[in-house]
Design brief:
Layout: H1 4-16, H2 19-26, H3 30-44, E1 49-52, E2 55-58, H4 60-87, E3 92-98, H5 100-105, H6 107-117, E4 121-127, H7 130-139, E5 144-150, E6 161-176, E7 196-199, H8 205-215, E8 222-226, H9 230-238, E9 244-247, E10 258-261, E11 268-276, H10 283-295
Parallel strand pairs: 3-4, 3-5, 7-8
Antiparallel strand pairs: 1-2, 5-11, 6-9, 6-10, 6-11
Length: 296
């Protein structure tokens, strides 16, 4: 009988490419993952990993076994869902991924609600950007994720996932009070053509969205300050530096010497919860969705 934990370790290495990456996802040390696979090699009397430089390569036999392990893990999840559904109670561990502003602006109330309404549920949170979050849910590393996409920057969602709309989040221009544009009732992209922008780092959805928003108006924005944390952006704005386009969710208190000015047309992003369709009947999933609706 093959050990399920060892199969899971091999499958993680196959999916993520290295022992170290698999260990990080599984919450083990790389040494523990290597030991699990070494035991699996002894059980199967088969070489599964081959050294290649500083890394490892899966043998053909390992890839075959890893594919089978993926099917087994899927069946195990289906069995767990069926048992939990039969019991009718939200129990066990629920791992939720979320991008930073939703983790700050939405999840605290959701966690309190889940804890009070479903005390047998062990909720874990992982901060993760939406593109990586959907992939992590599809692979089974997360049970659910809170993600978003912008009107001009849609987020691809794997076909194996279901999703529920949570709410619409509006973004507005934040600008130092010393900037004459701060007195406007609203701004258009053309009004901001000469400003020095702060934004999320390149490669993020928010970066792509900001660039596309201004490219759509025929403007090349000056992206002078690439800063991932909104509180740091606020610190610069409070000193009279730059302008920013920041969503309301998780924004918190705006400094006294910073003004909030609407942008026309209004930029919005849609928030979704995503989860594996095969787990839709799981009480923990339905409980989390209900609480998210309550606090959205």
């Amino acid at each position: 009988m093959l050990d399920l934990g060892r199969l899971k370790a091999l499958h993680a290495v196959a999916v993520h490419g290295t022992v170290g990456a698999a260990a990080e996802v599984l919450g083990y040390t790389p040494s523990a993952v290597s030991q699990q696979i070494a035991k699996l090699e002894r059980e199967t009397r088969t070489t599964l990993l081959e050294r290649r430089g500083r890394g490892v390569r899966l043998t053909d036999a390992a890839r075959l076994l890893a594919d089978t392990a993926g099917q087994v893990l899927k069946l195990v999840e289906e069995a767990e869902v069926a048992l939990e559904e039969q019991r009718g109670a939200a129990i066990g561990r629920l791992c939720i991924g979320s991008f930073a502003t939703a983790a700050r602006g939405l999840l605290p109330d959701v966690l309190v609600g889940l804890t009070s309404q479903h005390p047998a549920l062990d909720v874990r949170i992982r901060e993760i950007d939406p593109p990586q979050a959907t992939e992590a849910v599809a692979r089974g590393e997360l049970d659910m994720a809170i993600v978003h996409d912008w009107q001009n920057t849609p987020l691809p969602v794997p076909e194996s996932l279901s999703r529920m709309e949570i709410c619409t989040d509006v973004a507005e221009v934040l600008i130092p009070a010393t900037n004459p544009l701060s007195e406007r009732a609203f701004l258009e992209p053309a009004d901001l053509a000469g400003e020095r922008w702060m934004c999320q780092p390149e490669g993020s959805i928010c970066f792509d969205w900001l660039v596309r928003t201004f490219h759509g108006a025929g403007i090349q924005p000056t992206l002078a300050y690439r800063i991932s944390e909104y509180r740091t952006q606020f610190a610069l704005l409070a000193k009279g530096i730059g302008v920013a386009l920041i969503p309301r969710l998780g924004r918190g208190v705006v400094p006294d010497n910073v003004r909030v000015v609407p942008l026309r047309p209004t930029p919005t992003r849609q928030l979704y919860a995503v989860w594996r369709t095969q787990a839709s009947r799981r009480p923990a999933i339905t409980a989390a969705l209900d609480v998210i609706k309550q606090h959205a």
